[in-house]
């Protein structure tokens, strides 16, 4: 990862964020992105390899694993983090586009160039872009929380699952690798996502109230 580029993006987002937005960004970066990169990927690295069923029937273990894990936690979290951070970059792109446009107008008119937006004062199109980005971020987290709940009831993994799908010869017991550790990480990610949803909605209410 190019950390200098990432740092410049973070500073650009912080420049046009409120205090709630800065807290949200810190929460996403420290408690979601870093935890995902440093720890969560390693916890789920053996989920398929160490998924054991008490049968040697060819194909049974793969079929049961696919049924109980239709999509990996890691891939869902990666998609969630990508979608939830895109709106912040959209705000930066909006500001960059409008400032470049004003720059061209000032150069054509022979005047001096200033920033079209003053950090901390969101007006016009930027206000709407920022507000919609907050609602989109909250919506993305809510949708993914619902998807996780539908795939993994109560966001937990059982220690033993019973599978009777073909080509398994009968009802077989399958054992998940490190379910307790995975449940702890899942609960942590769910709680941080809920906190991010609350922060986004509070910031949206704050913007509307200030308007």
From TrEMBL:
Domain annotation Connexin N-terminal: ranges: 42-75
Transmembrane segments annotated in the record for this chain: 20-39, 77-97, 127-149, 184-208
Ranges for domain Connexin cysteine-rich: 140-207
Family label: Belongs to the connexin family.
GO molecular function: gap junction channel activity
Keywords noted in UniProt: Cell junction, Cell membrane, Gap junction, Membrane, Transmembrane, Transmembrane helix
GO BP: any one term: cell-cell signaling
Function: One gap junction consists of a cluster of closely packed pairs of transmembrane channels, the connexons, through which materials of low MW diffuse from one cell to a neighboring cell.
Source species of the chain: Calyptomena viridis (Lesser green broadbill)
Pfam family for this entry, one: Connexin
Subunit structure comment from the entry: A connexon is composed of a hexamer of connexins.
Listed name of the protein: Gap junction protein
Localization per Swiss-Prot or TrEMBL: Cell junction, Gap junction; Cell membrane
Main location: other
GO cellular-component term (any): connexin complex
Entry keyword annotation includes Cell membrane: yes
Membrane topology per record: Multi-pass membrane protein
PROSITE patterns: CONNEXINS_1 (PS00407), CONNEXINS_2 (PS00408)
């Amino acid at each position: 990862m190019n950390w200098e580029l990432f740092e410049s993006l973070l500073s650009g987002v912080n420049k046009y964020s409120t205090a709630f937005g800065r807290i949200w960004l810190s929460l996403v970066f420290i408690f979601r992105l870093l935890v995902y990169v440093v720890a969560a990927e390693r916890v789920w690295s053996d989920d398929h390899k160490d998924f054991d069923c008490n049968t040697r029937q060819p194909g049974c273990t793969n079929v049961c694993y696919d049924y109980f894990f239709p999509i990996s936690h890691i891939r869902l979290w990666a998609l969630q983090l990508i979608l939830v951070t895109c709106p912040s970059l959209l705000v930066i792109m909006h500001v960059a586009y409008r400032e470049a446009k004003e720059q061209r107008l000032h150069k054509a008119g022979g005047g001096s160039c200033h920033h079209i937006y003053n950090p901390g004062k969101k007006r016009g199109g930027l206000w709407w872009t920022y507000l919609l980005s907050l609602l989109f971020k909250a919506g993305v987290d809510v949708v993914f929380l619902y998807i996780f709940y539908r795939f993994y009831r109560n966001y937990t993994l059982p220690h033993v699952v019973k599978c009777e799908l073909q080509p398994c010869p009968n009802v077989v017991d399958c054992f998940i690798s490190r379910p307790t550790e995975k449940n702890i990480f899942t609960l942590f990610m769910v709680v941080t996502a809920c906190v991010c949803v609350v922060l986004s909605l509070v910031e949206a209410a704050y913007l509307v109230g200030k308007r």
